[in-house]
Predict the structure of Integrase arm-type DNA-binding domain-containing protein.
Amino acid sequence: MGLGPYPEVSLAEARDKARELRKQIRNGINPLQEKHEQKARQEILARKKKTFAECCEEVLEVKDSEMKNKKHLAQWRSTLETYAYPFIGKKAVSEITKVDLLAILEPIWLTKNETASRLRGRIETVIDYAKAK
């Protein structure tokens, strides 16, 4: 395990870090495993902070390779950009609530029921994707 490059980490700092690492080992903690777990936790937090629009783009990239007809991908993008982005596009996926979803769907549910139903499914797909990541 490296402690850092010489000019950036002085000999005294390296000794202090080594002392801390030995202390962790004595306490039954594997410093390398701890470092990897910390990095994984940070990645999970970063993913949770992704906005709905960012997750949509990731889902659309996946869908692009799955869909045979590019028109369907354009329809996915259009409904999400038209109806969902104004309400939750800049919102972190982890902060989206049922109230947000109702605010998106209620205005179009009676007049454009098929669009609302498809939009609900598409939003659900994006949120499920974000949770899985």
Notes: The chain is about 75% helix and 0% strand. The first helix runs from residue 11 to 26. The CA atoms of residues 38 and 128 lie 24 Å apart.
